[in-house]
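Backbone geometry:
***
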Amino acid sequence: QVQLVESGGGLVQAGDSLRLSCAASGRTFSTYAMAWFRQAPGKEREFVALISQRPGNTYYDDSVNGRFTISRDDAKSTVYLQMNSLKFEDTAVYYCAGTPRFGGSTWRNYDYWGRGTQVTVSS
């Protein structure tokens, strides 16, 4: 069982930056592919970014590619999402998710989820 806890959300202005963190329990963090998803009010949950197990290949949705960076520190059992040049449309609850397989961009492929952290970008 893996427990995930997100942090780092908040209220920012368009163009600002935020860094989200997701701390995982358990000793097997390095064996999990980790991803960030987000969900805005009235919309479906959508893929943001993914980082695989070692060597840590990364994948991004086109809407965030070039602005967001996902990274992981296996020694700290933590995955990060650095968000730069934030836009109003980035406003959502951001969720961290993990799977021992390659989950891809489909949220149903992920076994473990955090409770989410709110990111609000004012225009």
Q: What stands out?
A: The chain has a mean pLDDT of 96. Residues 91 and 120 are 5 Å apart (CA to CA).
